[in-house]
Specification:
Radius of gyration: 21 Å
Distance between the termini: 81 Å
Structural class: alpha/beta
Number of strands: 4
């Protein structure tokens, strides 16, 4: 009995089924309506205007395109996957230069990420992005000061990317 069963080769024709993700990733993406896309409603109107003007100036002086985006939820996806796919979906940064970036805040998941295209990885690498999040953004978020944290983080990004003659 038992020895015969153990000796049988185990054959598995297909990989085990993966649990279906409840919502398709792209259906979670907000529309790209400008340099600030605040679907989680974390920004005051004056903060959104200030950020828009700052990011316009950055793009005019460097051609770097940075978008601040807040979403209510990541829908079960990792913030890394969400950020990469959203950047691709929106086509941030000119295609030939890939000099685009996102400051992504997921309100309900309590996650923040700075996602950059290859063209910006020199000045805005993983270490500098992590430092900006830890030192400029998180301290404000801990006190529920989302507009202030997003402004501080965006200001740090712009300082890193902006022209040296500031």
């Amino acid at each position: 009995g038992l020895n015969v069963l153990q000796a049988q080769p185990v054959s598995q024709v297909e990989p085990p089924p993966v649990a279906a993700t409840p919502v398709a990733l792209q259906s979670l993406f907000p529309k790209l309506t400008g340099r600030v896309v605040d679907t989680a409603q974390l920004l005051t109107p004056s903060a959104a205007l200030y950020l828009t003007q700052m990011l316009e100036r950055l793009e005019q002086s460097t051609t770097d395109q940075v978008v601040v985006v807040t979403v209510p939820s990541l829908g079960g996806y990792s913030i890394e996957e969400f950020g990469v796919e959203l950047g691709r979906h929106w086509g941030i940064g000119q295609q030939d230069k890939n000099k685009g970036g996102l400051l992504l805040v997921a309100r309900d998941d309590r996650k923040v990420r700075i996602e950059v295209g290859y063209g910006l990885e020199g000045p805005l690498n993983d270490i500098s992005a992590a430092m900006i999040i830890q030192n400029s953004i998180i301290p404000y978020f801990k006190d529920d000061l989302y507009s202030s944290g997003i402004i501080a983080g965006t200001t740090s990004i712009v300082r890193l990317l902006g022209p040296a003659a500031d």
